[in-house]
Amino acid sequence: MPRAASFVVAAAALAVAGPLAQTFLPRDHSAIQYSTGAATDPVASLNQKLRSGTLRLSFETPHGYLRSVLAAFDIAPSSQTLVFSENSLHRERISMATPRALYFNDSVAVGVVNGADTIEIAAQDPIRGVMFYQLSQKAQPPPRFVRTTECLQCHLAAETSGVPGLFVTSVLPLSDNRNEYVQGWATDHRTPIEDRWGGWYVTGSQVPVRHLGNVPVTHVPRSYVRAAVAPRLASGVGTFDTRAYLSADSDVVALLVLNHQLHMVNLLTRLGWEARIASSEARPGQPGSPSMRVRDIARELVDYLLFIDEAVLPSPVRGSTSFAHEFSSRGPRDSHGRSLRDFDLTRRLFRYPCSYMIDAAAFNALPTAAKDLVYQRLWQILSGQETDKAYARLSLADRRAIVEILRETKKDLPRYFQAVTR
Predict the structure, then answer these.
(1) What share of the chain is helix, strand, coil (3-state, %, to 5)?
(2) Could you tell me which residue, 153 or 285, shows the higher pLDDT?
(3) Which listed residue, 34, 49, 318, 344, has the most CB atoms within 10 A of its CB?
(4) Nearest Cα to 253, choosing from 197, 302, 331?
């Protein structure tokens, strides 16, 4: 397997993306220029500040630049999740005793392995999609994030919707039989909890009984054998040397958010690319033309945005850190104090089932034609005009609350979003 410079596990996976993911888009199309266009992602912006001297990163032992990098990107240390599956760039350094740490916010993710010579960063450019960078873990004046395309060996795949993107996988235990290969699949909020987190630590004060986390996935007696009950961890204390990490936790709520967010990132990139390529080729309306794909991916994005196929939480969830509180506090709120970042965590992830990623820079930067399609479809569902049974899980109260929140917090929301009555 390619040792991609990735911040997530890369494995042979079962795609959970829609059918359009099987069509790969040309990343260096003149309308995209992924490799050659000027990047405008948060890392590129930070690099400019480092060059000009308006920002400095601090190096400290034993974490190098990590704390300073997280502060610069406004990433909460409580977002830490820990993965011990040995399927990435520094695989020789990753184990259950030395898991890889991942940190994230809405647009940037940071990965670090103890003793590795680089920090890995993935950031979403609003126009060009996810960019990958490395930062040397050697003190240097000034430090610089270096862009890399090595990650695309794994992060340009069906699992990323056919564009440079992100995904997390869940893997089953594997013995030392040389004829066996890693068995796993990409996961998002549609994946049943019992199929998530293989190869990951999962901590929390309340965690579903059945999932794949917290058990060895290499050097086991028998391959592909699931534990009947996942070991419960309130924290990582006593399981690995937590002194080497910013936190002793791999918070279950952070994992749930990460599972949701990454596919949302890919869909936003895919829709933006489809629309920009369609506009440049100027062939709207023809059967099978790019404009038809734009409409299809917009519908797929809206379904995901509204958690239409979200897997039900089998039991209430409560994390082991301050992540849930810190995450919720970041969102815009309406006059009733409601936010799309408010958690439910009893039967579903969020109290109001519309993704907070509707406020992401990549959503705001969508071409007008694509964004119009998203809003039109969103209103069709939220207003109650859509009668397909698949949307019945959105109650009148849900739809009404979502529209009310959007009307007060989303600046470019079309005026036809009015009170929901049916």
Answers:
(1) 30, 15, 55
(2) 153
(3) 34
(4) 197
User: How distant, in Å, are the alpha carbons of 6, 10, 152, 173 from that of 91?
Assistant: 11, 11, 17, 16
pLDDT at 13: 36
Q: How many CB atoms lie within 10 A of CB 333?
A: 16
Question: To which residue do tokens 């739809």 refer?
Answer: 399
d(CA 247, CA 111): 14
Confidence tier at 125 by pLDDT (50, 70, 90):
very high
Q: Residue 79: what are its φ and ψ, rounded to 5°? A: -75, 0
* Per-residue b or e along 233-259, where b marks 16 or more CB atoms closer than 10 Å to that residue's CB: bebbeebbeeeebbbbbbbbbbbbbbb
DSSP 210: -
Query: Average pLDDT of 307-313?
Result: 98
- Residue 7, pLDDT > 60, answer no
Long-range contacts of 312-315 (CB under 8 A, 24+ apart): 312/347, 312/348, 313/193, 313/208, 313/345, 313/346, 313/347, 313/348, 313/349, 314/193, 314/194, 314/208, 314/209, 314/210, 315/206, 315/208, 315/209
The identity of residue 234, as a single letter, is A
Q: Tell me what percent of the residues of the chain surpass a pLDDT of 70.
A: 92
Instruction: State the DSSP H helix or E strand holding residue 37, giving kind and residue range, or none if neither.
Output: none
pLDDT value at position 285? Answer: 58
**Angle separating helix axes 252-281 and 290-305, nearest 10 degrees:** 160
Quote the CA–CA distance of 58 and 409 in Å, as a whole number. Answer: 36
The whole-number pLDDT of residue 10 equals 35
Q: How far apart are CA 64 and CA 268, in angstroms?
A: 33
What average pLDDT does the structure give for the chain?
91
**Of the candidates 272, 302, 341, which has an alpha carbon nearest to the alpha carbon of residue 124?**
272
Strands (E), 126-172: 129-136, 145-147, 168-171
Question: In this predicted structure, what is the pLDDT of residue 292?
Answer: 85
**pLDDT at 281 exceeding the cut of 90:** no
Give the gyration radius of the chain's Cα atoms: 21
Residue 5 clears pLDDT 70, i.e. is over it: no
**pLDDT at res. 143:** 93
Residues in the chain, overall count: 422
Question: Which SS3 state, helix, strand or coil, does residue 33 take?
Answer: coil
CA dihedral 34, 40, 44, 50 (to 10 degrees): 160
Q: Which two tokens stand for residue 184?
A: 């796993």
